[in-house]
Design brief:
The chain has a single domain, classed as Alpha/Beta hydrolase fold, catalytic domain (Rossmann fold). The protein has 235 residues and is of the alpha/beta class. A hairpin with an 8-residue loop joins strand 1 and strand 2. It contains 5 helices and 9 strands; from the N terminus they run ββββαβαβαββαβα. It starts with a strand and ends in a 7-residue tail after the last helix. The N terminus is likely disordered. 42% of the residues are buried. A 9-stranded mixed sheet has the order 1-2-3-5-4-6-7-8-9, with helices on both faces.
Amino acid sequence: MTLAVVFALGGTAGAQARTVRIQSERIGLRTVAVLLPSGYEQGDQRYPVLYLLHGGGQDHTAFMARRDFARRARTVGMIVVMPAADRGAMPAPAAADHEDFIARELVAYIDANYRTVGAQPSRAIAGLSMGGMLAAGAGLRYPQVFGTVGAFSPAVPRSEPAATRADAGQYFYVACGTRDSLLPASRRLVASLETRGIAHEYHEVPGYDHSWDFWDPQIDAFLQLLSRARGWPPS
C-alpha cells in the first residue's frame, strides 16, 4: 500500500485536515480525509483514532461538510479518519472487501504515518446507514482491532459476520429513528449483539427518519461516549 497524493482541506479545519490517496491491494485507489486534533503539529502526543464511515451516495467529504463538524470532533482529543467507499449499492462481498481494507490496510497506514496510540481500546469505528453496516461488520469481524463501535441507522445485511467473542472488550452503540425504514435492521443487529453477549447500548429515537437531522446529534452522542471510554482522553 502506497501513498499517492496529500492535499490540505480548506474551511475551518485549516492545515490540520488533509486528504490522502492510498493504493489498496484489495480495492484499488482510495481517497481518505484525515482530521487531526488541535495542536497536533506542535506536539509529540499520541492520539486515539476514530474511523468514521459515510452513507450511500456520499464520500469522504460528507462529515467535513457538516456545520461545525471539525470543532465538534475536536472536543475529543483524537484523530478522525474518513475513507471514501463506493457510492452505489454494496453487495456482501464488496462490503467485506471494504471492511478488510479498513481493518488491515488503512489502520496499518494510519498507525505508521500518524502519532496514534495504536491499541484496540484506543481505536473506534462508526458510521451511518451504509457506513453503519460497514462499521458493525468490521467491528464484529475484527474485535481485536476496534474497541468501540457505533452504528447509526445501519443498513445491516441479513447475513451475519463470523461470530466475535464477548470477552474481546468491545462496546457497541446502536441508534435508529422510529420512522426509519431500516429500523428492523437495527433491531436484528442488537439481537445479534445480545446473542453473542457483546456489551452495547441501543437507542430508538421517536419521530426521526433516515436523515442528518438524526445523524448529527447521534454523532455528537457517540463522541461523548468516546470521551468516557477506556483508552480515550477525557473531554
